[in-house]
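anyone else get weird line breaks when pasting these?? whatever heres mine. first is seq + tokens for prot A
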Amino acid sequence: MGQKTSQHLTLKDSQELLSVSEVVSGAIVYAAQKLEEYLGFEDPLSKLRPAPNTLNEIFLINFITFCKGKGIDEWLTTTKMTKHQALLFGADWIWTFWGSDKQIRLQLAVQTLLMSSLPLMESKPCDISNPESGAEESSRKKSRFDKLEEFCNLIGDDCLGLFIIFGVPGKPKDIRGVVLDSIKSETVRSHMPGGNAVVQFVLETKHCVSIRELLGNCLSKKDGLREVGKVYINIL
């Protein structure tokens, strides 16, 4: 994290990264399809339903399995945050895309949210029973949205924040993505807290792009890393 990235892509890199983006897009859709059967499940008698952290693990297991089968380990690294890291930084995992020169081309810092029923459910990385350090105490006062924004700013221009939404009201099996920068513009305009802005954005935004299109644009930097606009990412 925090490495300076090379901005000049060779033709080979461009072709390879395009192929990688195709595989990763397929892996995300595959993992979402595997996760779909668990979304919206609730036993009314026992109040049993999958916890957000459990959904994260199911998604990642299937995503990594798909990617390993395609042999793209050299080009993509998935780093699941520890409980402590997730608490401090607001990211549940990071996808790092590499060039042939071992320079970072793109980092996606992912935070997942369960929105099938409101109020919004966030994954809760850990419960700290020990006395908190100053950093931990300060961190707990911030929303996960703010933590993710700070983390992406700390890493640099080639780190993009991405929310993955597991289920939306009325469509509990939908899985969508929202780019952090799309929400930031809304929070500035409406002075709304980040978490509320995510909910409003998902509920009100009608236009979408595919995850394949998002990754292709980000890796090629053809239209600028953050030039996504007011659209959500259609995953499932």
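and prot B, same format (seq, then tokens)
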Amino acid sequence: MTVNNLTLLHNIEYDSTNEQYETLNSLIFFTIVYILVLISGLIGNFIVLFVIFKNNDLKHFTNYFFANLSAADVFVLLFCIPTAIHDIWAKDQWYMGKFFCLINQYIESCATSVSSLTIMAISFERFIAICEPFKVHDIFNETLTLTTIILIWTIALILSLPFLIFSVYDPLFNPTDTLNNTSNLITICHLDANSSLARACITWFIVILIFIPFFILTYIYTRIIVELAHHRVVRLMTITKSQQQQQQQLDDESFTSGLVSNNEPQQSPSFLVYKRFEQKRLNTVIICLVTIAFFACQFPVRIIQLIDMYLRVRNEDTMPHLVWIWLWKLSKLLFFLNFTANPIIYN
């Protein structure tokens, strides 16, 4: 049993050779995909970290938050994907020792917390930059950003403790439930969500760091989109008016001198302001895409966790075993894809 499975064991055997063949194909498929995610994710995130810290022009508080996201991504990729590959082939047994059993989901949860809180911080900075542009440099600076990052990691480490406390490493598990039969003892590792306290802690973790931020960020980005649309219309009207005045001035000068001027209207100050506004808009779009990707990759696995804890659907009467396995594996794959997608979005 692995930390990726919450409470129950998969003890169903398949007699059909076709089903076994399909299962083998799925093992190979997920193994290859996980390896590709691991390699591409590490390369992409290390490039982001290298570029930000080596380029003085990029040492900006917003980019420090992006570097923090990449650091969290690297931790998940290094610790959790090898474990996920182990899970694919180990069936319901655990071969990676007690340390990795206890630390795996804790690191995974910490990274989720860091990503959620960092996205909240970046989005708040974008909200101030768009809606209150004259206050952004008064509120955000390098010292405050670094302090915020330290605070984010501290909160993440604390909020993720339930995944450390309720992880169970059992080297003497008896899958037959027969006291006299000790020959089939196996080592398992799982997150014990049987107690009310464990379910409450895990549920509040998901609510506080996934669902509540989702609704807050939905409101923030709705406000940002409305503000950007308004500013875009106003600035375009200003540029058009400025270019018309400039062209009129050139025509008057040409008429006065009796010459035809071939000079193109030069870029007006309002046009330069508009270009800066467009760059600000592009940065906001990037952060918005990162936010959408985060929640799109988090929701499936978190919803399945909640269903598994409260509805106990993982049995043959409610759902075929193979269907449940595929749902879980696909949701976990989507979860890991988020940690390799961020560098692609930045670029």
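btw re prot B: Residues 17-346 form a domain with the Rhopdopsin 7-helix transmembrane proteins fold (CATH 1.20.1070.10). The CA atoms of residues 38 and 78 lie 8 Å apart.
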